[in-house]
Amino acid sequence: MIKVMNSIYLFLSIYLSFTNFLAQSAPENAIISSLPGFSGIIPSKHYAGYVTLDVDHGKKLFYYYVLSERDPSKDPVVLWLNGGPGCSSFDGFVFEHGPFKFEKTGGKRMPKLHLNPYAWNKISNMIFLDSPVGVGMSYSNTRTDYITSDTKTASDSHKFLLEWFKIYPEYLSNPFFIAGESFAGIYIPTLCDQVIKGLDADDKPTLNFKGYIIGNGVCDDVFDGNAFVPFGRGMGLISEKMFQDVNKECKGTFYRPPSLKCEMKLDFVDQHFDGLNIYNILSKCFHDKSMIKHENTKLPMSFRKLGETDTPFPVRTRMFGRAWPFKAQVKPGYVPSWPELLNNTILLNNTRGVPCQDRNVAKIWLNKKEVRKAIHAAPISEAGEWEPCTGRLRYHHNTGSMIKYHTKIIDRGYHALIFSGDHDLCVPYTGTKAWVQSLGYKVIEEWRSWKVDGQVAGYLRAYENNLTFLTVKGSGHTVPEYKPKEALAFYSR
Q1: Angle of helix 150-167 relative to helix 184-200, nearest 10 degrees?
Q2: Taking CA atoms, which of 77, 118, 273, 292 is between 20 and 30 Å from 258?
Q3: In the predicted model, is pLDDT for residue 443 greater than 80?
Q4: Which first-to-last residue range defines the signal peptide (predicted)?
């Protein structure tokens, strides 16, 4: 009996020692002990730093890793990617589902950070990745590394994941998902394809990949580009006569006008979209002090209230850079950066910029010397100033429509959740709904409502092979920002 007890004791000692080793295996130099602007106790551990992709080039991708507040040893690990192309995933961290809500304090003073009750790390471990290299805090000492493409970005991100999990091996057994929004509708399917190819090739370490999540993501120039006019009709932004006229002249092809008359009709439609916040037609449109400020006067107040949010701080008064610009579908070839687009955007008072937008709180915080030191980011002199969207990339879209990628991934049985804020005019849900349906999978749960606190929060349709399409009622382009409670609710399911 004594020998048995000694054996059990020895086993437990070895097991506990191994468990403790795993718990401590995350790099000490990546731990974030405190954050400027936050005076409370951080509920879970945070890590941040660089993964070097090419030592000779000095090519590095920056990540910020937030552990789950529930059970980090078992909860999913989720890689989050924002869009652009060329926009930082700190956008999601600061304005959407990150662990904090940021409060402006005026001027360039340090913002105040408050805990976010709807943070996605309530139930999952979140990796916020600045990708491709040149975005956000990621940088290279070799400028040619800033010339990139869909396939190069996917390859680099896959290499990042393999190296990252070597640094954090204790999370290899956790379910792993890839999530994001907007232009990440390109990043995610191409990265998933790389991950699956790596699994088939027995790349090490072995990722426990389970699926992906895309919100208001671009996918296909035909489906996305043809969605604007029908969406405007459905939302009452244009009259039925106007829709019939433009539809007749354009023969249902709005993304590539077949004639000059069609183009003129589309210009007339565009005039009726003027003054709207295209990223959420229910929201006000703001400009900075040098620009005009106006409201969505075409929408009655009762209709606009549908877009109200219960986030503890006001939804930001900007949408810079997370979405492909209105009526500029993702087409093959060179993709202009947001700064390039800004130079070609004339607002109503003849100033240049993206309408309805103000991004200062993130820029102020992430360019503070003490913040960069706290999160182990390189100084401005080395990595450059943090911008929500960089102008130093030369990005080429070289993979075409994402439909073939979705089919390849879903055919393998990986989970796919495609969601849309239903009042986004930038990537309208009608186009997304159409391309999801075009995949041809059998419907196993017909169109129905889903609820939060007993209230309808949106609608969904479920397909075979673990595919779900879901809408969020009253939300715009960035669902976790506009409808944080509802976003956490569907994310939790």
Answers
A1: 60
A2: 273
A3: yes
A4: 1-25
